[in-house]
Amino acid sequence: MPRILGIESSCDETAASVVEDGERILSSVVASQLDVHAKYGGVVPELASREHLRSIVPVVREAMAAAGLNWTDLDAVAATSGPGLAGALLVGLTYAKAICFATGLPLITVNHIEGHIHAVILEAKQRGTPVEFPALAMIVSGGHTHMFEASGSDYKLLGRTRDDAAGEAFDKVGKLLGFGYPGGPVIDRLARFGNPDAVRFTTARMKGNTLDFSFSGLKTAVLRWVEAHSMEEEIAGRKALLRENPRPTDEEWLAVTPPRTLDLVASFQGAVVDELLRHALGATSLMENARSLIVSGGVACNSGLRAAVTNRALGIPVHFPSFGLSTDNAVMIAAAAFPKFGRREFAGFDAPAEPNLSLAGMK
After folding, report:
1. Does pTM surpass 0.90?
2. Residue 74, domain CATH
3. Range of the domain at 331
């Protein structure tokens, strides 16, 4: 059974994993940079590259040790080649090349977005309920909001965001309201305490491709609501809490977040979820023969999205990744490499890092 070492370094997680036979996870190690970037309110590319350089060797060593393997036990090494931050991608890809040069193992380059799709495919196989194709794949994260028609290794782009990604909108609204970075998980946890119908938000209706997304207007609507309700003192209180405690509990957040803000948070999350669900329904209708829905990426952790998709009768099976494989990880990179390994699609040492790497015509 082939074993592939996967390496992921596209943004702010340094990750390594060994996967056997495209399904069995022998190890998975992730070094997060969350604390490094939190003080800046977002990912700083130069700092991300520096942290990857510090972490890549120990993370890969730990993954190999946890799998109980030597280099001679591997059949290939896979690394993310894009999309992502140029400097961050170079760290993981260059280290993968070094391993391959020293060991003679073949190198496989993987598209990060395809990796998110294969995280779901891998776990569906483990559950004994494999994904049926063609499938609608909706990748929703801080950097991406795209929908594809997936048929095996073939992808057709159906819709994409024209401005902010959904996860980016969550984090920017979280920062605006004083919840720090990343704000998306805090918004999700607090949304259950508010009324999602309290604030009426409208979403953009796109000209051209009606399956395209836009979240910038929704983010601006939250800003205008904040300005209209003079929330400066309240926001300052939450920022002060963060300075005292970088990871407040829900009870601590609730103590500095009045009901009107909880209603705003719940309404914002509800608007984003409704927009994602509306597009998913539109895409499955357009595909006609869609046999399953894949939802992956960091926002796949959002409880509101999971509940809405699960409770809505879509008429087809819905597949989410586990929480651990929703955010960036190397299991998904190794899993996505197995079809390429079977086709002998190996990369040379001149394979570039491609920050704007496309998948099915995506730019």
Report:
1. yes
2. 3.30.420.40
3. 3-118+325-342
Give CA–CA dist 144/282, Å, rounded: 19
Q: Is residue 299 part of a domain?
A: yes
Number of domains in the chain: 2
For 154, list phi and psi in degrees, rounded to 5: -105, 135
pLDDT tens-place string over residues 70-114: 999 999 999 999 999 999 999 999 999 999 999 999 999 999 999
- Who's near 159: CB < 8 A, 6+ residues apart? 146, 147, 209, 211, 212, 213, 279, 283
Length of the chain: 363
CA distance 326 to 17: 15
Whether 234 maps to a domain, the answer reads: yes
Mutual angle of helices 86-103 and 45-67, in 10-degree steps: 30
Average pLDDT, the chain: 94
Q: Does residue 82 share a domain with residue 157? A: no
Exposed/middle/buried for residue 38 (C-beta within 10 Å: 0-12, 13-18, 19+): middle
